[in-house]
Amino acid sequence: MQGKELSEQNTTGQSTVGIDVCKDFLDVHIVPQDVSLRVSNDAQAHRKLKRALAKFDIALIAMEATGKWHREVHR
Q: What CA–CA distance (Å, rounded) separates 65 from 13?
């Protein structure tokens, strides 16, 4: 760590999720399971994504901040 403090965020999950955001859709990738999916960027698809992600033991979700297109899925 070379003098750096440990992160206050302790994670116990096994998976990391990355979400690439655009106006019309979300590209989602889950590692280490190597699962990819694309969903629409709308409320109905956000609920579908939430159900899909619930199947994994998630430690972290990283999402692209795009100004306004990420706000609803972030909530």
A: 23
At residue 55 the predicted structure's pLDDT band, cuts being 50, 70 and 90, is very high
Residue whose pair of structure tokens reads 């579908």 in the numeric block: 48
Coil, strand or helix at 71: helix
Give the per-residue SS3 of the chain: CCCCCCCCCCCCCCEEEEEEECCCEEEEEEECCCEEEEEECCHHHHHHHHHHHCCCCEEEEEECCCCCCCHHHHC
d(CA 42, CA 59): 24
pTM of the predicted structure, to 2 decimals: 0.78
